[in-house]
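ASSEMBLY PREDICTION REQUEST
Request ID: AP-0331
Submitted by: J.K., bench scientist
Number of chains: two
Total residues: 736
Priority: normal
Notes: Please return the full assembly, not individual chains.
Input sequences:
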Amino acid sequence: MIGVSHYLILSGLLFSIGFMGVLRRKNLLMLFFATEMMLNASNIAFVAIGNYYGDLSGQMFAFFVIAVAASEVAVGLGLLILLYKKYGSLDLDVISAMKG
Amino acid sequence: MESLLYIALFAPFVGSLFAGLFFARSPRTHLVGVVNSALIGIAFIASVILAIHVAKYGAVQVTMMEWISIGDLTIPFGFLVDEISVTMMVVVTLVSTVVHIYSTGYMSHDKSYNRFFSYLSAFVFSMMILVMSDNFAGLFIGWEGVGVCSWLLIGFWYHKADKTFEENPSISPSWAANEAFIMNRIADLGMLVGIFLIYWNVGSLQYDIVFDALPQLADGILVAIAIALFIGAMGKSAQFPLHTWLTDAMEGPTPVSALIHAATMVTAGVFLIIRANPLYSLDAVAGVSYFIAVLGTFVAFYAASMALTARDIKRIVALSTLSQLGYMFAAVGLGAYWIALFHLAAHAFFKALLFLGAGNVMHAMDDELDIFKMGGLRKAMVGSYIYMGIASIALAGLPFFAGFWSKDAIIETAFNEGTYILWGMLVITAGMTAFYSFRQVFFTFHGEERYKALGFQPHDMYKYVLVAMAPLAALAISFGWFMDDFKGFITKNLPVYEMSEHTHHLAGYLGALVILFALIGIAIAWKKYGGTGAKAWKKDEKLADSFVYKLLENQYYVPKFYDEFIVQPYTILSAKFWEFDKKVVDGSVDLIARLFYKSGDVSRDMQNGNLSSYLNWMGAGALLLILAAAVAAVIG
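STATUS: Completed
Returned structure:
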């Protein structure tokens, strides 16, 4: 029987993978993917817990997150294209401009 | 009458502000001197009218406004003009007026002329607050105010460098100013303790309430209050052992010495005891009063003995001031308050005159102070010679001059109280007083004209200055003639002190004895210092090398003792504390600063401009927060 804990474990795993991606990846596009993964991990958790409590708010919130993520991707990808046009690369080590 | 009271009080303040606010940066302006002198003159006239009013209708008391009002503590800005304070007001404003006019001439070449008048008027204002206040808190404000002004004025020529002089290894105006201020600070602590004790035990600082409540207090507390207040008086009036500042205060300009360190401020201690006479005449504090009389007599004798050998014209006058303050304390301690106040007023007149005369001599001799270098000046400066002669006669107590009546009354009091040792000492001191004051006069104005060989070209002071000194001379001669009127006026407020039948009977002989001593003193002085030619004074090396002479010349080694046993250990201690401060206090502060500096230096690498490493740090921070929340959840 698949219970709420399984979903939460899956969500946690996905979140951790996304988190590691954010920390370790150097390519901006890959960073985007990693953040998307973290958002979707939280979506899974929302929906699972909403279902567990019989409360629709969780699922509602998941839709909001999807909408926000979609718009974020639209803006973010636009910026990425511009960055790529400017630097010819999306590697963070290459495009870092602020030298402390 | 209220408005007159405020005029008398605030006219000097207006003068001080006028000089200080509008002319502080401008060059020497004669207007300042004239306006300030006029304002002090107005205060004097107001004081005289008030005195007449008080004599006719009794005391005037006003409350200007509430000053401190917290819980049970209420201290108003109140002023009381009764017989005691109005006497002080008239004396202070009269001497101040003369000194202000004198200063317009004496300071006319000083570039800080305006500043001088600002300070001098501020002093008069503080002194007026001191004498007019109707509570101990206001008195204390005035007390500190005159202390600050004294500090400012002694150190008026603060730019002068230290120089070696007589018993002092190094002395400069700024050094002397600090010495005076610090010594007074020590004594003021005693006075503050006295005021606190009064407040704790009575619950008020108003004179009338306090004096009414005194008989209900325990004896121990009364004695403690009396001692604490007297310690304050000792500092201001330079009584032993806090006396060394007064002679060093002569570093200030001479008008300052005349006004502050002879006529007014130094008598504030005597005034305090006279003001608190209901306390000091209680049986419970008879011991303290007797101690005051003994100390006063001792100081009178002690200071007079030092004046016998002093060479500095101003120091001689300062030591005689000290000696006369001793007389006043002797009278106060023996319960003859009105006689002390009478002597205070008489002394203010002739001593201010003496000081201003000494100032004329200094002025004529290009600030030379050593009387050994003077002599025969009477031809060059007749006016000053006459004034100093009058003042010295009054000081020596020759008949019909002011000092004769007042000092004789004090000596008679000592006899009347049966304290024959004090009486004997005071009589001998009277002889010494006559000797040293005429020694000074003869040294300065008679004898060989030693100054000629030294290339001085003396000239007398401006005419108008000499004219301005005339009122003081007139009072130095005649003030004693009004003794009975003064007694009738002042004893409405102060206890009447009557001589017993026995003393009254002997009064003529006692007075004659004092005069005899004075005449002997003058005769010795004339014989030694007055002659010219073959009889002229020559330095007696054998006498100058004798132990007693050295002892007196070095002021009984008291300044040296203070220097070696108090000042120097304190300096060493301060150096150690400074070391401690530098290493521990400053060190710990520096350590914290260094810690931040270092941690900033180390963590600077975090901010390397690389988004990836920023994200890593952010992740680490987020994890840390989660961890902290988890730990808090588990513990909490």
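REVIEWER COMMENTS: The longest helix of chain A spans residues 57-87.
SIGN-OFF: pending second reviewer
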